[in-house]
Amino acid sequence: MNKLQAMEVFVQVVDAGGFTRAAENMKLPKATVSTLIQSLETSLAAKLLHRTTRHVSVTADGAAYYERCLRILSDVREAEESLSRTRLSPSGRLRVDAPTGLASEVIVPALPDFFERYPDIQLELGASDRTVDLVEEGVDCAVRGGQLGDSSLIARRVGILHFVTCATPGYLQRYGRPAHPNDLLRHRCVNYFSSRTGKIFDWDFTRDGERVQVALPGLIAVNDTNSYTAAGLAGLGIVQMPNFLMEPMIKDGRFEIILNDWISDALPVHVVYPQNRHLSAKVRVFVEWIAELFSNHPAMRLPKGPPRTASTEITI
């Protein structure tokens, strides 16, 4: 038995909450994962996991051993990196998740630069507006827009999203142009709902100290950026979207800005990763590259301010 491999498999099983998910994340046969765990328990003369047909949980011995495995594996990786070229040229498989719009319009077009810098990294980029469970799904880090909920993740703020309210010329010709956010109550709007909770998000507007936040009527609600854009272009209603996505369609006349003297709340963009996972060289360089990418994007760079006394990385 390769003890280090068995430790890595054990940590993956605990993180993923099961043998099947761990096997998928490590690209190993499930039988191999099961055999390694059994061999590890035999060599330790201790039961590390409680197994049922539907659930895997950690024993008291397993919990203590898990914490030690994390430290040992972290030390091994740091030792390997200190004696190899990975600090200068990180390598290996990197799994990243990002919202659909940010992935297709910002991250993917810039990837040639990333691969020119780090040619030995194999990137697996998941693009969806669903909030993935990084630990359970074996994702190294994720780019997320919006306010972050409570979790055990480390977050680094890298950018900001500004929103504009728009409609197609055909819609405005048919239904008229609203002059005040309250006028939207008499219009059709394309709503967006959370894929996690199913809740439809309110719309918000601010002007000269006046704030309006309201749930708006609509024939359709979606939870994907591409579908949201398509619904707006089909004339199904007014949309409110990040300006970096809308700008090309405003320039070519597919959308027109409405209520442009009103401002909607901006949303932060973070890179997040599990705090109990060793921040490998490949994750570190990707996080730094994303931060640089957003800092050079005119629509999403963070406003300049006084230097922070604390780290830009926070636990959420």
TrEMBL record:
Annotated HTH lysR-type domain residues: 1-59
Name of this protein: LysR family transcriptional regulator
SUPFAM superfamilies reported in the protein's UniProt record: Periplasmic binding protein-like II, Winged helix' DNA-binding domain
MF terms (GO), sorted A to Z: DNA-binding transcription factor activity; sequence-specific DNA binding
Record's keyword annotation contains DNA-binding: yes
GO BP: any one term: DNA-templated transcription
InterPro entries: LysR-type_TF_proteobact-type, LysR_HTH_N, LysR_subst-bd, WH-like_DNA-bd_sf, WH_DNA-bd_sf
Family named by the database record: Belongs to the LysR transcriptional regulatory family.
Organism encoding this protein: Duganella rivi
Highest taxon of the lineage: Bacteria
Keyword annotations: DNA-binding, Transcription, Transcription regulation
The keyword DNA-binding is assigned to this record: yes
Pfam family, one: HTH_1
